[in-house]
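Q: what does this look like with heme C bound?
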Amino acid sequence: MTALQRFESDQIAPALLDRWEIMSGREHETAQNILSSRANWSLALLQAVDQGKLAREAIKPASALAMENHGGKTLIALVRKHWGQLRQSNEARQKRMAEVAKLVAEKKGNAQAGTAVYQALCSACHRYRGKGGNIGPNLDAYQLNNPGFIIPAVVDPNLGIREEFAGFNVITKDNQRLTGFIAQNAPRFIVLRDLAQNSITLPRAEIKDLKAMPVSLMPEGITDALTDQQVRDLFAYLMGK
Ligand code: HEC
């Protein structure tokens, strides 16, 4: 398949996308590397995602970033729409990602034991299998069985932050600092929902500064304190639906 990469034809993107369903996981990786290497192919891939022909979770954040780097209004808008504001992962996160990917690939964990890890680390913010909080997106809506999606999403939450889940920092005129989501944005006041799910009404007249947070509300390094077995169990639970 990599031989195709050197060609420039417009035919290559549709040909690869047509075969997507019959490709293996490894071939999906190769295909997205190829497609993200040229702007016109990237656009075809992004349009397939946008039309729902291909799941967003099938595309790694690294490929999405590579596509965005080609530039162009339509292309950037499609990447932002589906992956949010993407960033380059730092070295420490990349290293941890490789470690976690290796642990998960080596040996299957125990999904049952993973439930407890999930409850301790994630359920305060995410709904999954019908239970949990709603600070982050509902995980039932994702295809979590793809390691190329779920591992970066958990290990490096800052890779992509979507606008609808962006947190805000507020500084009031009496110098209180608050963090949360804008639950309501009215002309005279805002309602901030904090991480404990409390709603706080703040008159605009009392706000000195209101800014979207540059980082994800999802904590970085969330798996770092887990044992190898707990990592495997957590991912067995997440990926085993
Ligand atoms: C403090 C709240 C919080 C905790 C704890 C948390 N998350 Fe998140 N998570 C979020 C928010 C907010 C987002 C969406 C914003 C973003 O993309 O950063 C998110 C995004 C995600 C996404 C989707 C990423 C995407 O590209 O759409 C996945 C998957 C995810 N979290 C899984 C987990 C798992 C698994 C855990 C536990 C190991 C966890 N989260 C713990 C708040 C949290």
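The beta strands are 85-86, 127-128, 131-132, 160-161, 168-172, 177-185, 189-193, 199-203, 207-212. The chain has a mean pLDDT of 88.
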